[in-house]
Amino acid sequence: MVEDGGVDAGTDAGVDGGADAGRDAGTGCLWEDRFDVFRSSEYHLDTSCGQWGAGDFVLTSRSPQCRTRLYYVGRTFDLERFQVELEAYAGMPSGGDGITIAFVQTPTYPRLGTICPSNCGGHLDFDGATGFAVELDTWPNPEWDPLATSHVALIQDTTTRHLAYTPLTIADGAWHRVVARFDRGRFTVWVDGYRVLDTHPATAPARHPWYVGVTAATGSAVNEHRIDNLCIRALP
Which of 132, 142, 208, 218 has its CA 20 to 30 A from that of 73? Predict the structure, then answer.
């Protein structure tokens, strides 16, 4: 999907090969959800349009100005090494705005409306958090976002603070397997078995009691965003 060299800001993309790329001989899933049912007591759900989809979770419908944050609150992940695995879908028609896999101090952060205009979904319902996120951005916002292309990025606190990125989009109407690994402050991301980010920002702690979840939003351009087969896995 991404050739070597298709990176910026200190990343190191490459092919790790096969469906198991991004896996270690870990301990199994500390939390696993196939969304056959929706276990609402295990999550902090704050949404204007998201819903359980009877087999997956619909983060946003194909409607403008939708937003969702879905955080697992059964525990925090105060670990040196763990990873989040899921399948992500961003279906057309018009492409906006994207999904994040977020590692935050609290899932109940305030919603900021100052990053982009009120009809914009580029905040991805992450802006206002304290923490990091793997951003699967599917809609360029050149009027305010310094990255004027769709991308996978590591962001901190807001969607305009990119610590590393790779030009890439998942908005093709297909399901994609995404693995986001935290390793003592180093973040590595695979999409469909291809390593697309590998960065160790100086601002990242070696461990922290993270809440882990996903967020998504639409603006005037819309995608249907879905996730499925979530696993949060400890690594040796």
Answer: 218
* Residues in Cβ contact with 12 at an 8 Å cutoff, skipping those fewer than 6 apart: 195, 198
Whether the link from the prior residue into 127 is cis, omega within 30° of 0, is no
Which among 107, 91, 111 is positioned nearest to 99, based on CA atoms?
91
- Full set of structural domains in the chain with CATH: 14-234 (2.60.120.200)
Closest CA to 54 of 68, 34, 74, 84: 34
Query: How far apart (Å, rounded) are the C-alpha atoms in residues 232 and 62?
Result: 28
**Where in the chain does DSSP place strands (E)?**
14-15, 29-33, 43-47, 51-52, 57-60, 67-77, 81-91, 98-104, 131-137, 151-156, 162-167, 175-183, 186-191, 194-199, 210-217, 224-234
Give all strands of the β-sheet with 162-167 in edge-to-edge order: 43-47, 67-77, 210-217, 98-104, 131-137, 151-156, 162-167
Rounded to 5 degrees, what are φ and ψ at 195?
-75, 120
Tell me the chain's radius of gyration from C-alpha atoms. Answer: 16
Query: 59 φ, ψ to 5°?
Result: -75, -45
pTM of the model: 0.89
Strand ranges in 23-78 using DSSP code E only, listed in sequence order: 29-33, 43-47, 51-52, 57-60, 67-77
Residue 11: pLDDT over 80: no
- Of 24-28, 35-39, 55-59, 105-109, the poorest mean pLDDT is in 24-28
pLDDT at 26: 57
